[in-house]
Amino acid sequence: MDNNDALESVFAHLGDFGKYQLMQLTLHLIAATTASIHMLSLQTVGAVPDHRCRIPSLDASINTSFIVDKLEMYIPKIDAQTFDPCYMYNLTAKDNSTIPCDSWVYDPTYYKSSRAIEWNFVCNRRWMGAAAQSVFMLGALIGAVSLGSAADKYGRKAIFCWSGTLQLIFGVAAAFVPQYHFFLLIQFFYGAFGSAGSFTAGFVLTMELIGPSKRTVCGLCFHAAFAFGIILVAGWGAIIHDKQILQLVYGLHAVFLVGHWWWMDESPRWLWANGKITEAINIIQKGLKINGSSVVLDPAAYVTTTTKVNQTLLVANIFDLFKTPVLRKRTLNVCLAWFANSLVFYGLSLGTGQCYGNPFVILCLVGVVEFPGYIITIFIMNRIGRRFPISFFMILGGVCCINATYLFKNDLGSTIFVMISKFSVSNSFAVIYNYTAELFPTVVRNSVLGLGAMSSRLSSTLIPLIGLLDSINLELPTTIFAMISIISGFLVLFLPETLGSSMPQTVEDGETFLVNDTAFTSCCRRKKKDVS
To answer: Most Cβ neighbours (<10 Å): which of 161, 341, 362, 392?
Structure first.
């Protein structure tokens, strides 16, 4: 019996899903919710309300109203209802010339306190808000690749637990930072551990523990937990109006990860692939007992037959993905899909403040709209597969972005198309996680998910900066998001379908895994079968 067959025979005793897997999955899902809360925290803590220039003669009080009489005498209008947020008339000139504002009054309708109000992330200081979000995502990017590789080397559990502790520290610290540049430093580490570490390791732990028949549902539960975090961000933001208390509440959600070191088990697949057969068998035996099975496994029976094979598994690393042609093409294609999905997913999530309506309701809807999508996706993935849903939803999401931008502007129609686009890309983003875990071998699975997450975070880092391009053309940022999504959605069709396939273990398995299977070759085979 070779190494892969021995491992699968052990997991066959455990079954695809039982009480033990449910207990472990519940622990993993907490990391998805906390990651979402941390990643979207600046949507409320750093929110930029509607604003206008402060006029000394009208706004003598610090708590002046946003709308006051005779405002049109001091501030020009950019349309019939909107005052210019960045310029006011130069009252010492006679030609109605304007000068930039040097202080602002903010609309308190939705936000009474935020980092943007404190540090004036508006007008010629907009870059400061974009930089804060980008630095968080840069930390997530660095964390994704470094912690992903570390999880393959040192174990999923260790990286998960350390990241959980550190995201608690930096999440709380972010609430008390008084100075902008120090805030950026905290944001970097907050992103690295709050977004990347526990989330990616937790997802891999889930995929490596759950059997093939339940892997789709459990993977999508992970993303549903992430969506629940978005709803919590909106809910807390609507209730708590003090930025410091709000950030403290967000950061303290990581307390729920502190006890995982004692309650959560290491991945048996990782232990097996790294030659720790006895430890892997012991964990599976524990799972068998919790699941009510009477099967007793003998570790010694597996150690002698698998140790020699495992010596070759220990040397695998992320660079092996680029040494052979099949894995190299797949890695680049998958990374582009992660990049594109993230670009639209977070571009829409982080841009909810620009949509028509109550920002808390819209942010909540951004989370809620994902749930029906995941139910549909479970049905589709179990019957159609992974490849087609990813491609279809990415292309649909891109098309809806274009409709929201060019057919409807600043009205309810735009918000509806944004929600449809978010619904679509949420589905494709959820499937790409499962798909990546199934497509690549165990020895580099966490690394390649880390690489995918790095690609995702790279685009997330660029989103706030791309958003600044609206000063050149209002439609340009969304057009960029849409076109990249559509192109990547088409390229996904060149990847293989993994529905019903066993996970590859070694790099060699990965290179020969479903080779020459694309959407186009599958269609050709189907046509030949119909003809015959």
So the answer is: 341
